[in-house]
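Severity: low
Component: inverse-folding endpoint
Summary: output formatting inconsistent between runs
Steps to reproduce: submit the following structure tokens with default settings.
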């Protein structure tokens, strides 16, 4: 076919130059000042996570939810302090941050990014994937955005996709991984629907137990009243941020809500437009898991639903899509020059793949395309699944094909099983 991921490999060359040449030059220039190097420029948002880890170890975790103190502290300690910083994360995230508290900034940043990147690679691993497909995953725009901002979208995305991929073969491990997604509540919204529709009691119990453990551990180690402070302070703070945010901050929010706000509409209008996207995501997710379906396409579809469902979505959250899209493209042959797919499928999937890089520029010029591209990508994936349904029905259970609709399907869970 004329349009395929294989014919768009020039992007990988550009990404490699950005990572290997341009980004180090930028870092050298940004961390250098009259007093020497200031490594706090690397992954600007990461300083708030390191600060949170140290405050938690010092027994002052509750102070993180004091907006004026937290904002001032970050501004004073980040070179050329700018941007908007508020601690709106649940106390359970502190459980994962504590190991960073005793490290230097660069050590902590490297460990934080390394953990997320390694988990994403492991859950997306496939022995049948070509090298160029692996480059597609490593140089994904969402990966670059997470590294640039110092965010943990890769870590949460790895938990989510790992749980989805192991749902059938290892439900207990899947439930634990899905429970860990609760450290990022905006990505956790659909997980109860997934577990209820899938009717996996083991996965559901493991997920509930994991969430309960994270809540209890954070309450025991960081203060029994911390969750009450979080529930009292964060909803109003988050609402104020979304209502009053403006400029480039809104360009980082590729949800339907963010699109409306970047166009100058009120927060109320944004929530009204977001509502049908959220409802559709809930319905499609239930439909995906209420019966057995081809797992790779199903998992890509549900990650797209996760991104559509929440108004509080940021560009770095698209890291959840990287392993899903990586395996889907390998699975369907989109990486092959002779792949026989409709033109719209690779175009829309590649548009979503590039979204973390292009959304800021397009939204700044009045074209916030995030929710449109994501919704259309969901449509083409669901259409392929529906069109493949007759093939699945024609294959009897004794044929040994299960729900593998497409040729050369790597077994579900292969990546994690091989890694172990």
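Observed output (run 2 of 3):
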């Amino acid at each position: 076919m004329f349009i395929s991921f294989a014919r768009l490999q020039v992007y990988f060359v550009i990404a490699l130059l950005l990572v290997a040449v341009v980004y180090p030059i930028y870092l050298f220039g940004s961390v250098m000042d009259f007093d020497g190097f200031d490594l706090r420029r690397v992954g600007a948002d990461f300083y708030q996570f390191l600060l949170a880890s140290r405050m938690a170890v010092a027994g002052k975790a509750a102070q993180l939810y004091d907006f004026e103190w937290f904002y001032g502290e970050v501004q004073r300690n980040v070179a050329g302090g700018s941007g908007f910083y508020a601690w709106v994360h649940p106390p359970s995230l502190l459980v994962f941050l504590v190991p960073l508290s005793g490290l230097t900034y660069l050590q902590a940043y490297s460990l934080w990014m390394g953990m997320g990147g390694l988990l994403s690679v492991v859950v997306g691993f496939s022995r049948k994937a070509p090298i160029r497909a692996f480059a597609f995953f490593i140089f994904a725009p969402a990966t670059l955005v997470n590294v640039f901002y110092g965010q943990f979208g890769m870590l949460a995305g790895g938990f989510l996709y790992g749980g989805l991929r192991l749902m059938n073969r290892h439900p207990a491990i899947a439930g634990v991984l899905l429970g860990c997604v609760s450290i990022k509540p905006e990505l956790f919204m659909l997980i109860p629907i997934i577990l209820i529709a899938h009717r996996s009691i083991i996965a559901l119990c493991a997920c509930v137990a994991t969430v309960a453990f994270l809540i209890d551990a954070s309450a025991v180690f960081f203060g029994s009243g911390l969750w009450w402070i979080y529930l009292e302070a964060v909803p109003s703070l988050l609402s104020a941020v979304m209502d009053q945010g403006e400029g480039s901050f809104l360009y980082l929010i590729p949800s339907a809500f963010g699109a409306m706000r970047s166009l100058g509409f009120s927060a109320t209008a944004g929530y009204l437009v977001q509502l049908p996207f959220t409802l559709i995501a809930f319905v499609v997710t239930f439909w995906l898991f209420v019966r057995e379906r081809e797992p790779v396409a199903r998992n890509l579809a549900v990650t797209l639903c996760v991104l559509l469902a929440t108004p509080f979505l940021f560009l770095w959250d698209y890291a959840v899509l990287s392993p899903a899209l990586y395996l889907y493209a390998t699975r369907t042959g989109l990486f092959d020059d002779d792949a026989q797919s409709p033109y719209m499928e690779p175009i829309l999937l590649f548009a979503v793949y590039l979204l973390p890089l292009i959304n800021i520029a397009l939204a700044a010029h009045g074209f916030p395309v995030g929710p449109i591209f994501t919704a259309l990508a969901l449509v083409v994936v669901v259409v392929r699944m529906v069109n493949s349904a007759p093939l699945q029905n024609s294959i009897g259970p004794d044929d040994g094909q299960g729900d593998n609709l497409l040729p050369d399907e790597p077994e579900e869970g292969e990546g994690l099983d091989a890694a172990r």
